[in-house]
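User: Fold this; tokens only.

Assistant: Input:
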Amino acid sequence: MDQIQMAESMVDVIRARNGRPERALAIYRNAMDVYREYLPDDHVLIGRLLVYEGDAHAELLEFPTSIELYEKARKIFRKSVGDCAIDSAQVAVNMGKVLLRKCDYDGAKEEFNAALSHYNQLLPENHPKVTSTLSLLGRVEEEEALCV
């Protein structure tokens, strides 16, 4: 378990530093090797690391790869913690952000609404995750209106 804690520490350090997605991906791959050696394939930590990798690929504008990683994470979270969990909602938010950047407004709305549905069941209505997701839904509407 010490190796898993070391891998988690490496991931935490790189997550604290923004703007270096290539470096982050290298560390995430190393951490994933450790996780896969010691944890079952459907462990929540593997799902979270897939989300982080997806975020890095999104930052590099590699949207198909980020979507693929988010889908893998979504499957893990559904199996391990269920659909109505913070991790599942976060995948929906991250997926929605990528779809918004791709101008897939219907897909982005669907993801943000799914996240909001989960958050509303789990968090108070004034929680930052709820207000942030509402803001993202508003942004979809604004950007969609500009394209007409």
